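Notebook entry, structure prediction.
Reason for the run: the old model in the group folder had no record of what sequence produced it. Starting over properly, with the input documented here first.
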Amino acid sequence: MAVFQFFLVVLTVCFVCVLVESKYMVYNTSGGIVPGKINVHLVPHTHDDVGWLKTIDQYYVGSNNSIQGACVRNVLDSLIPALLADKNRKFIYVEQAFFQRWWREQSEAMKKTVESLVHSGQLELINGGMCMHDEAATHYIDMIDQTTLGHWFIKHQFNITPRIGWQIDPFGHSAVQAYLLGAEVGFDALYFARIDYQDRAKRRDEKKLEVVWQGSKSRGSSSQIFAGAFYEGYYEPPTGFYFEVNDDSPIVQDDMDLFDYNVHERVNAFVAAAYSQANVTRSNHIMWTMGTDFKYQYAHSWFSNMDKLIHYVNQDGRVNAFYSTPSIYTDAKYALNESWPLKSDDYFPYADRINAYWTGYFTSRPALKGYVRVLSGYYLAARQLEYFRGRNKSGPTTDSLGDALAIAQHHDAVTGTEKQHVANDYAKRLSIGYKESEGVVAASLGCMTQSSLSYECKNPVTNFKQCPLLNISYCPATEVDLSLGKKIAVVVYNSLGWKRTDVIRVPVTGEKVIVTDSTGKIILTQLLPIVNASALSHKFYASAYTGEPPSTSPKYWLAFTAVVPPLGFNTYVISSGQSSGLIKPISYMFDGSQTGAIEVGPGNLKLMYSRKDGKLTQYTNSKNSVNISLEQSYSYYVGSTDKVQASGAYVFRPNGTFPIQPDGKIQLTVFRGPLFDEVHQTINSWIYQITRVYKEKEHAEVEFSVGPIPIDNGIGKEVVAQIKTNIGNNKRFYTDSNGRDFLERIRDYRADWNLEVNQPIAGNYYPINLGIYIKDKDTELSVLVDRSVGGSSVVDGEVEIMPHRRLIHDDGRGVAEALNETVCVHSTCSGLTVQGKYYLRFDPLGEGSKWRRSFGQEIYSPFLIAFSEQDDKWTHFPISTFSAMDAFYSLPNNVAIITLHVNSLNKYMMIVKILKFCNSY
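New structure, fully documented this time:
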């Protein structure tokens, strides 16, 4: 049994006066830990968002101050002389995206000064990532990448490694953060602020704010880390101890010759606040976070007041105060003979008060979330290709895309909780990064298809083009008139460590096309017409992308099966020839009078649609003997406009649920082909859906287009896709943690406290980056997604995900804008339309984990496809197929290569990161 020390607080009026003469003072700030006393660790810090109300550059240089008066350059410029003024002063800094900007501007003399401050411990660089990443809407690979970028710089410049995780502002905290980005990074502790208000109240009462957090059951004690949630639920000083020049807290006025002398009052207030915190904290060590957003722009104001507090509080003697850091605080906690509560799972969902669940941001700005995810997978592949060719010193490189993606992981970026102009800035940076990396990919593939010694290739012969807007059938590289004898060479690259087979689709203008593989053999293809809904998206968004209407419009989708070796590519050629023919649609209209079913699917998997109303009714897989009834539908939640708490970018607060019904007669259009069948459904005027069932796959693919969500009736809407089955999941469902482990969720239940249910829908929403599944004693239903969304099982047998939301009120959490995204092309503006996919599969109990694991990696890392126009005499590339792995070897499908590239700071260092997934995944 551990020995616990308790501090009984009795507030009395202190009549002991500390007399101070009006003269130059040297304040004693040299104190440290005093055994037997309450030790108040004063941790000076600033929290600098890499974008939120202003863009990252505006925050750094201090522009656009009509929105927010913040200048990070001033913070760092002001900080260094303040630290030099007293060797006992300390400071922690987190956001490397800002620090590295500032560092590049400094003289060699200043850099040496900063190095000495870092090595002396006065300036501690903690957390160490480019940003303080979010923990709900981020994928674990992106979290690793952005952290690695920051840690590389710190190691290279200062030869140190950050010790402490400092995730003080993200809106809830993930299990993956605890074990993968905490314990396995080598952190000694992880500190944060935001946990559910009910959870916090119970933990304060029981002195359980600080715990040992085991983020992974399968990894056991190796996944444990000391973790602490802050006392008040924010990362600021106690009330009354803010010391920026424009803050309204009383300064410490110790000149007795002047009015408002207040040393006694300030010391008493300090001691009272220390006692209050000590009463809910185990041991005699407490941490005060002395700073908040963009503070220390005039660092002297903070440090001069803290100098006085330390001096006079220690003279008073009731508590002990001193400058500290989270590392010093952690060492003090480790030195105690104390046992700590064990925490498992995570800290989601987060509510800061009643009716205020921060679960809306799991979906907010879904187009940005999708863009981040697409470019994350592209970045992974581009770095590999950059490595195979060799890094080009003169450029282009993948660095700018890596930087843009790192910043996009910020907890006010990919979350969708920033102002619109800031979201635009993130997208612009990503686009610039993509464009440069596109050049890297093109040059690498040009060299690799030309010679096996690609690192000797300087000027590739082949000019490869890529099509970032394939999702809207915009691909100028394939819109070539093949009847003139031209050919389109296609290179398909696989960034995963195992052989992959997948169907790819490219838009073409002509009907008479064939595809040959790298041996010259004609392969099976499928040709489908591009439907009107896709053609309209093509015209509108291609115009938005290029600034002018597209000169041509493709008429068909050409589909074929690509088989690609691990960490390698295969090549295909599209040319003119006698194709297998255009697939004609079969249309069905429903009036409720017909019976029977429409069967869809050319392989083992069959979907059945009712001839009565066109709804999906049955899922049958002859391979695994699954036969289950189901329904698929869309609904929307009305976003609350309550003045106390509205639904907004952060908060999901529904006020009623409405099914989305067809505008007129129900119509179903089916395309049947040798590779896959497609079912097209116009759900209503603003939702269009295509369901694909592939011959060689055991899952269904659902592609949706949602938007513009109408708000002309003054109602904001939060749209959900629902799958209804008869699975008896008994309130239990499972969602992933940042694309890795799945955690059990129980509706209306929390393991750590007795949940008071006030929002039965929003309070049961969880972040989904990979998928969600439910199960009973016989069957599992898995739904995987292509980006971060919110989702739940709010009724037994059902799974729902939220692909889009559009709201007309702000939720009062600081962004001061409604989540009402629009897209403008010339003079035409409309609400945002989101196109995406989700994938569903049923398995016998216990057999779904392998698919979730392996196919989840394939969703993150799709084939990278590049095109090159060739003349009629061209036959094939000198190197038509390639694999970086032995011809007879593939990685197991539970092992993924997540990084393969050359360290930009050391040209001789190759970075390889490999992760293994557990079978219970």
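Summary: The first strand starts at residue 39 and ends at 44.
The old model has been moved to the deprecated folder.
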